[in-house]
Amino acid sequence: MNTKFWSSNKSSAEEEGGPSVEHWEIKPGGMLVQKRNSDVNPSSVSTPTIRVRVKYGSSYHEISISSQASFGELKKKLAAPTGVHHEDQKLIFKNKERDSKDFLDVLRVKDGSKIILVEDVEKKERRLLEMIKDANVRKVTKTLKEINLELSKLQGQVLALEQAASKHDKIEDKDVDVLIEILMSKLIKLDGISAEGDLKQQRRMLVKKVQNYIETLDQVKLQKVKINSSIDGRTKNKTIQDNSRMRNDINFSVRRPVSQKPSKNFESPMVSTKWETFD
Fold it and tell me: Which of the pair, 122 or 234, is modelled with greater confidence?
């Protein structure tokens, strides 16, 4: 930038009774403009209000706005009466689209100036897609948090059953089956979630957690079968032993009379009739 030219402009402005050096600023395009009154001294002088006529389609809208406002501020004022979101608006002034950062007074917008509003369809589509994406992210985030909270509650039940199985305590099949069914429903719900980035990683971690819980419960069921088989085996052996003992007792009572057979030297008395003879 030519500092000599900049210095001479400032000096000439001050000599002519214009604003002092600190009242000037350089815009991004290199244009030298006077600072906004609000930047110099917000309470010094109120800026004038102008009315601009904005055409949208076949309708005209008169908007009252500060003469030192930006086109971005004008867009926000036009959103309500036109129904066009401020991010989807194109404002045409003097046959040229104006940037939202441009100021009305700098571009010589005056009271009664005419501006044309055009809806930017491409911007609208991009904005709607972003809205849908953001809404989906919020929904997925909420769903994953809910599932994670529910799994934290179910974790206690899974650990309790696992400990009971390790202690060979009695476990009801219904308790294990109901818990597995609940976990399977969570797995199906997670499978229906479409996520990207960090949310995708969170979803993967929750799926792994559910799978681990289900595998633990499967091991509990398997251990329960082994325990029951062992108990049934011991019960069966005990029953066989009891039955055998009963049979022995029965056989002993049945054989007792037989064991009292007469010895070989014992001769049973013979009954005979002997008649006496008389002389």
Answer: 122
